[in-house]
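Deliverable D2.4 — example input (structure tokens):
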């Protein structure tokens, strides 16, 4: 199906006038192609010019010029409409919030809660409809630029204009705060409780996980369906951009990639060792984490264990200079109990032995934005979604490695 027909078929009737005028833009491209053909081969453009040489004049109101004017106006139209609808959604959520607060005080499923749930559902569906609108227009701009460069190869513009398009707020996707507000409303109407924050020196998690790939165009849809059952969890709102938090994880391995292949082959008791920190900027406190694979068919469950370190103690820890005695002194000074210190001691010793015996060093870093859904501080059931994933080699091909530079990450 031609994109023009596809756009017309997918357009929402009440928003039809707000979509990209794809046919109008295509007509201007065809007119530009006819003008180019009538004017003959494109003139040679020298690298120098002269103030006294008169060049062949170009038609002032050329079709190609009108094409770019119209394209810019259409992109601006889409941006204004998107902002207007988002503002309306935010206002509807602001009106819903106090009603949800009041309904939360009533026990059980009341008629008021049902009505408010329906309103929350309509807001969510309108948000998804707006994202579909943005995606259709985004695709339309790509398609029309591709058609321009195909019919007018002497003046390609696609690469330049796409860079300009990516700077538009409606393309950058800065509206996830709407999902956070919607999640809060659903959470209140469900009557969600809050768990107890775990601040132990050493922590362990027994878990069973299932992972899925999600297409970029389905991310908001999946988020919306999850938040109807679990709230968006913001551990520290200062570290969040909308509904997501930046996470950096430096994975350790040796030259033989022993840990990587062990996890890939799912060998019994294969470990992954990493140092993780949350939020933007340089880390101040990090988590030293060890994940151990266990065989599910034996009735065993995989385990994640971790303890915290101040950033300035990471290199001394890796170099075996920051010992257990000093770590215990620091924990007692921080007011940790003897039971916590005992758990910390066991994990601290085991991780140090594994780093030393396997000759582990910082190897690769993963960085992504994570949206987490769970009852606050209760990870009995947790759903997380990672986007904008990138991987960074911690040891450059040229220059000193992290270890030689006295660092644990680039």
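Example output (designed residues):
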């Amino acid at each position: 199906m031609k994109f023009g027909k596809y756009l017309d078929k997918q357009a929402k009737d009440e928003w039809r006038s707000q979509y990209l005028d794809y046919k109008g833009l295509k007509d201007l491209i065809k007119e530009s192609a006819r003008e180019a053909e009538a004017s003959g081969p494109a003139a040679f453009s020298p690298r120098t010019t002269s103030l006294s040489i008169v060049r062949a004049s170009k038609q002032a109101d050329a079709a190609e010029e009108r094409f770019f004017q119209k394209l810019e106006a259409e992109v601006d139209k889409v941006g204004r409409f998107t902002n207007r609808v988002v503002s309306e959604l935010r206002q509807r959520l602001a009106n819903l919030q106090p009603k949800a607060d009041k309904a939360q005080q009533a026990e059980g499923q009341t008629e008021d809660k049902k009505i408010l749930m329906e309103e929350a559902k309509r807001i969510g569906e309108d948000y998804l409809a707006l994202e579909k609108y943005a995606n259709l227009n985004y695709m339309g701009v790509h398609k029309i630029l591709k058609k321009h460069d195909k019919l007018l190869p002497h003046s390609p513009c696609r690469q330049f204009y796409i860079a300009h398009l990516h700077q538009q707020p409606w393309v950058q996707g800065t509206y996830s705060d709407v999902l956070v507000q919607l999640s809060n409303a659903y959470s209140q109407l469900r009557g969600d409780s809050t768990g107890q924050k775990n601040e132990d020196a050493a922590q362990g998690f027994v878990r069973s996980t299932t992972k899925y790939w999600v297409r970029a165009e389905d991310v908001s849809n999946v988020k919306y369906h999850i938040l109807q059952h679990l709230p968006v969890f913001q551990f520290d709102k200062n570290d969040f951009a909308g509904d997501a938090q930046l996470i950096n994880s430096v994975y350790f391995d040796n030259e033989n990639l022993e840990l990587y292949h062990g996890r890939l082959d799912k060998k019994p008791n294969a470990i992954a060792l990493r140092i993780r920190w949350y939020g933007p900027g340089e880390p101040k406190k990090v988590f030293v984490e060890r994940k151990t694979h266990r065989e599910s068919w034996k009735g065993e469950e995989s385990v994640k264990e971790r303890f915290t370190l101040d950033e300035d103690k990471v290199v001394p820890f890796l170099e075996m200079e920051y010992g257990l005695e000093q770590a215990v002194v620091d924990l007692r000074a921080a007011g940790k109990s003897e039971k916590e210190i005992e758990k910390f001691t066991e994990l601290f010793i085991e991780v140090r032995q594994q780093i030393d015996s396997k000759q582990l060093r910082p190897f690769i870093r993963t960085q992504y934005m994570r949206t987490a859904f769970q009852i606050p501080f209760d990870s009995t059931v947790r759903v997380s979604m990672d986007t904008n994933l990138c991987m960074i080699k911690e040891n450059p091909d040229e220059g000193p490695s992290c270890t030689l530079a006295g660092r644990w990450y680039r």
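DSSP finds twelve helices and eight strands in the chain.
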